[in-house]
Amino acid sequence: MVKKIVRDPFFLQQKSEPATEADKQVITDLMDTLMANRERCVGMAANMIGVKKQIIVVAAGPFTFPMVNPVITKKTGKYETEEGCLSLDGVRPCTRYKEIEVDYLDGDFNPRHSKFSDFTAQIIQHEIQHFSGDLI
C-alpha cells in the first residue's frame, strides 16, 4: 500500500530498530511507495513511511530491491557530495564512498552479501544513514 511520506524532522531523527519477519508488510509498503514516487525518488528507508525499522528499498536502473537490516562491511573511495531527500527540503553536504560491501537480508529474509558501486552505493549509504536518525 502506498504510504504518506513523513516530513517531521523529530520523527526522522529517532533511531530505527532491527526488522523481523513480522515486518514483511513494511517491505511491500515501501516498495509500493517508492514506485509511486519513482519520478523523484531512488530509495527509501522505512522511517520515511512512519516505521522505525531497519528496512530500505533501492531503485537501481530497472531493478528495485529491498534490503533488511543492512550493514556496510567495507567501504572505499571516500568523496564529498550533496544530497536531497524526499522527506526534507533542500540539499545537504555529506560524505559517501564509491564502493561498498553490504550484509543484509533480502525480501524473503535470506542472508546476502553484495558489492555496490557508484550511484547505487550512494543510494544505499543515504538510506542506511536514516537508521541512525541523522538528517540527510
What can you tell me about this protein's structure?
It is a single chain. The chain is α+β, with helices and mostly antiparallel strands and 136 residues long. The protein has a single domain (9-132), classed as Alpha-Beta Complex (Peptide Deformylase). The protein is 21% helix and 42% strand. It contains 3 helices and 5 strands; from the N terminus they run ααβββββα. The protein has helices spanning 9-12, 24-36, 118-129, and strands at 43-45, 55-60, 63-85, 88-105, 111-117. A hairpin with a 2-residue loop joins strand 3 (63-85) and strand 4 (88-105). The two termini are 25 Å apart. The mean pLDDT is 96.
Give the helix/strand layout.
Layout: H1 9-12, H2 24-36, E1 43-45, E2 55-60, E3 63-85, E4 88-105, E5 111-117, H3 118-129
Antiparallel strand pairs: 1-2, 2-3, 3-4, 4-5
**Assigned CATH architecture:** Alpha-Beta Complex
Q: What's the SSE pattern? A: HHEEEEEH
Helix content: 10-25%
Kindly provide the name of the CATH class.
Alpha Beta
Distance between the termini: 25 Å
Using only C-alpha atoms, the radius of gyration works out to 14 Å
**Shape assignment:** globular
- How many separate domains? 1
- The assembly state of the depicted protein chains is single chain
CATH superfamily: Peptide deformylase
Under CATH, the topology can be stated as Peptide Deformylase
Mean of pLDDT = 96
Biggest sheet strand order reads 1-2-3-4-5
* Structure classification: alpha+beta
Question: Count the helices. How many?
Answer: 3
Strand content: 35-45%
Uncertain regions: pLDDT < 50 for 5+ in a row? none
